[in-house]
Amino acid sequence: MPEFEKRERAEATIKEMGLSDAIDTRIGGWNVKGLSGGQKRRVSICIELLRRPRLLFLDEPTSGLDSAASYHVMKRIVGLAQHERISVVASIHQPSSEVFELFHNLCLLSCGQTVYFGSISSANEDIEQGFAKEAINVLVEAYETSDISRQVKQFVDEIKLQNGRLEKKGKQAGLIRQCAVLTRRSCLNMFRDVGYYWFRFGIYVALCLCVGTVFHNIGSTYSSIQARASVLVFISSFMTFMAIGGFPSFVEDMKIFTREHLNGHYSVAAFVVGNTISSFPYLLLVTVIPGAMAYYLVGLQQDASRFAYFVLLLLSCMMLVESLMMTVATLVPNFLVGIIAGAGIQGIMILNDGFFRLPNDVPKVFWKFPVYYISFQRYANEGFYKNEFEGLMVPDGQSGQIRGEEILRRVWQMEMGRSKWGDLGVIIGMVVVYRLMFWVIVMAADVLKPMSRAILARLATRRTNVED
């Protein structure tokens, strides 16, 4: 479909749903009021209507709305459905008489059993026959023996014989198009949401200024060995730990993703790619500027290539933590519990990074194998240490000098068989692994959730039958 036709369809849908006055208003969130509840509900429906589906399912489209807003929303949906020849299936609890009269057919359920299924015009007469009885099961039997029930069953049998499928009016956008749209939308959302990166950016700048003044120009004395390691550990630990601060905003994105993915708008891969690309420039910003302030104020090795590696490794660590929190979000959708879980995981990783407890002193049971070897902070620290100490000459406190490589082996008990680029490769590999874990968990949930609900429904039905 050409771009101008897409825009025309979007504008027509907005107009049909009565949202023209709010076209330049943001949806809103925790920091911006934005649209009203009824307008937000209509926006959600507009998103589904954009594809002009042949069959549209709406679950409680009037939930949380007053009677006037409910009637307005449903009237717009009915009008658009008639114009575009869309079949609408909506579940509504206790609709008003005005909303009820907008429907053409009614499926009335009681305890999971069909009480009535037919046209609205015949509903009152048929139901009144059942309500003369006292028990619900008699009401169900009254429907099953009615002429309307026989007509419905005959119509269903005819459809089965035809073996037909819904007419397809178009095809889904390709992966590249999905990624492009999601990247643009996510990037815009991150720019507008202060809590995503901007607030953290201010905290990073302030803390790196503090680090730069406390460790200002540490020099190359023997005492600078401990100071250099402390600075590097603090920067990597604090900046990666603070990366969980964007978790609440990501949880809001996950709610939108869950709804739109289940409705078939785009794939999990498109969401992962879009989120990765859109977050990269912001992560680069919050890494380069605060990192440069701390790096040069402290007086670490004045070499452009070493600073570039420092930024690249720090950026990779930030991406890794965000990937980890993506995985946490799929398992713990509540943002408060997710932050606590993420902070706990981060604490364990920092505890086993080889600084607070030297590698040879870490207890071998559990903490050394496997925690120490899967801790990303361990590989981050090794990369930072090697980048800073390799090629450095420090007075040994007596009459000679000690090489940086010797410091890494003797003082920090570092494994020298792997270069700093190898440590960076491990971090990048972990980024990929965590993003793949997110993809696998979401795909598994798509399969397991319907199965679990079906099993629970069967158990509930059996329990009801036993009680009866």
* Structural class category: mainly alpha
Instruction: Output the radius of gyration.
Output: 30 Å
Low-confidence stretches: none
The biggest beta sheet is recorded as:
2 strands, parallel
Number of domains: 2
**Molecular shape:** elongated
Average pLDDT over all residues: 86
Helix proportion range: 55-70%
- If strands are numbered along the chain, what order do they take across the biggest sheet? 1-2
Terminal CA distance reads 56 Å
Number of strands: 8
Total helical segments: 18
Relative strand content: 5-15%
Order of helices and strands: HHEHEHEEHHHHHHHHHHEEHHEEHH
Provide keyphrases for this structure.
468 residues; 2 domains; 8 strands; two-stranded antiparallel sheet; mainly alpha; 65% helix; Rossmann fold; 18 helices; elongated; ABC2_TM; two-stranded parallel sheet
Describe this structure in words.
With 468 residues, the chain is mainly alpha-helical. It folds into 2 domains: 3-162, 3-Layer(aba) Sandwich (Rossmann fold); 179-453, no CATH class. The protein is 65% helix and 7% strand. The strands form 4 sheets. The chain has a two-stranded parallel ribbon with strand order 1-2. A two-stranded antiparallel ribbon has the order 3-4. The protein has a two-stranded parallel sheet with strand order 5-6. 27% of the residues are buried. InterPro entries: ABC2_TM (IPR013525), ABC_transporter-like_ATP-bd (IPR003439), P-loop_NTPase (IPR027417), Plant_ABCG (IPR052215). Residues 177-389 form the ABC-2 type transporter transmembrane domain.
